[in-house]
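Morning run. Coffee first, then this:
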Amino acid sequence: MRRTFLLRDANGRNVDAVATLELIQGNRQAHFSLTCNNGSAHDLILEAAAPEVRRDLETLARVHMRQADGVPVHGVSNATYHVSEGRYAQAVATLGAGTVEDLHAVVGAAAARAASGLDLALTTRRDALYRASDELREANEALSARAERNRDRFRSVPPPKALAERRDAAANDLAKLMGVTEGDATPEAGRAAAGELPERLRQAIRAKLEKDALSEEMLRHVTRVCIPAWGADLADAMEAIAKPDFRAEGRPAIDDDPTTLKGFASAIGATVTSRPNPDRKAEPGCAELLWDLAGPDGSMSGTWPGPRDMVLDAPRLLENFQSDFACVETARDMEDFLDDLGYASGGAEKLRTGRKAYETIVAQREAFTAAFGMDAYRSLMTSVGDDPPMQPDWEPDAASAPRP
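And here it is:
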């Protein structure tokens, strides 16, 4: 499912929002998403929302990254981690339900639960240490007895495999209970630890209890508070995303809007053709494309890396020009360009690559202006696309401006 919102903010800038409910490969369930030109910038979307779609957009923003059943993707585990780190507001935002005060109560209940179970847990650990110590002592005694019986009969006899495995397993179990290496796990050390549990063991037991208690109390909170809210949000979201696409009043269609890359390409008469470069060897499925961009007063050409079946269109090429041209326009000179993009510190070969890139961009900038004119160039850099690189009042420096 998909619904688009063609909005316009208070400054007259386009904000294109898209709400989707789709299954991404590798996920078990479909999930909701609400994004715009600048990613998941929901504040930007809501600021530009027209009154008639504001409620729908608020609902779709709430369910962003929730599964088709309404549950946030990894929401409970992430929120539990945030609570354990004291980030209550972030946990509330992750769950999309409840309050900070609710989570304070969750932490209090978890602490009480852990405290009430601490004595029992310590007694259980002490008994386990005694049992493991006795098992290791008995295994050692069995090995010693067998060795003693064989001493007068054989010069060298390895210990029986079953007895050795019993001794190793007992040592491993005791080491885990004590929190030490197997070499330090002796029956004497185990019984000493059982008699008076070291503080580090007490702390480890307490931390485990607190972690388990917090997870249990968070699940109670989710069941009591979050699931009903998620269900209500899901019903509202399904209704919102099923409605027709929306276009703000006065906002032209994308194909006719000269401030979009597609509309701008149409307005300036830009057409692109591309084909694989037959002279360039590449990995299977890949190729270097040769492209030609034609305009009212001329044309230009170049190369583009991509799959062999890729169709390069004018909007994608113009967006690439914006980025490349901005790198040159914001640099004082070639040396500044090389330094800004990291070419100056990469050795002679990288420096040569950087110089070639600079010269190619400058040549393309001049070819673009020759084919489409200075006004089109200025518009491309200041008012076209999702995020134009230059300010609206920007003018190219006389020294670096492309030839008209």
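The first strand starts at residue 2 and ends at 8. Good start to the day.
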